[in-house]
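Per reviewer request, we include the raw input and output of the structure prediction for the construct analysed in the revised manuscript.
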Amino acid sequence: MSSLTFCGRPLSPYVSAELEWPAAHSLAAETARVPGRPGLALVSSDVEPLELRVRLHLDAPEALTAAERAGVRRTIRAWLLADGGGTLVVPGEPGLEWRDVVCAGSTGWTGPLADASATVTFLCLDPMAYGAERSSAGDAFDVGGTWPTRPVMELTATAGSGASVACTGTGERVELARALAAGDLVHIDCGAQTVTVNGADATADVTLGSDFFRLAPGRAALAFEGCSSHLVSWRERWA
């Protein structure tokens, strides 16, 4: 067992933690009836928020007075009350964090004094964990993780009428149609679906046929036009 960190606060000074890993993610299915066939047809599906249950064990409770134990419980309750959500790092996965997490419920402190414990349920509204930050200045590179990630790309423009980046594996591309001077810095954020030029918003200049694409785990290859250099950055995503 080890401890966890929620909203930047490690609970290790007070408790040890034991994670109950879910076996799989849950999917919300959209279905439709099809005449002439039994059951339902799957139209689409979305990954539901992830519930993570963590058993908290009070460290050395027999060494604390009743007032000290009450103080620890109050501190933990206050730290878990994050109505704006926060990040969560769980035992056994120090390189991963979940974002947009809230405490969705808990049990009371149970068991004898020597083994006082409680179970806390965290609801990860973004169910895919964030892993290591990576970057590449090449046209082809390896993407880790087990879930697609949305990259951020910085292009140093050449003089011309625009710039573009295409994912060669899928054919998706982001194209900017506007006059650019040599050295202009084009910032493309596929997660936020925004583009800036020298820090000023240029999203309105993105062509209608553009797609802010994702990078699938494995080998990725991109094609750049209208730039002299580039840097691609991303966070690994883990299911």
